[in-house]
Design goal:
mainly alpha, rod-shaped, 47 residues
């Protein structure tokens, strides 16, 4: 038998990026829409 040990990641601290990366498909389009609305609002108010 080999003494090959697979590391157990249950005791490893959770990475901050891995906590929020599953929200990116929701957050990025929403933030993009808000940003486009604000830029359009600025463009209309300056005209």
């Amino acid at each position: 038998m080999s003494d090959h040990h697979t590391p157990d990641h249950a005791d490893a601290p959770a990475d901050e990026v891995e906590k929020i990366v599953h929200l990116m498909p929701i957050v990025l389009p929403l933030v993009g829409g808000v940003l486009m609305f604000l830029l359009a609002f600025i463009a209309v108010s300056m005209a």
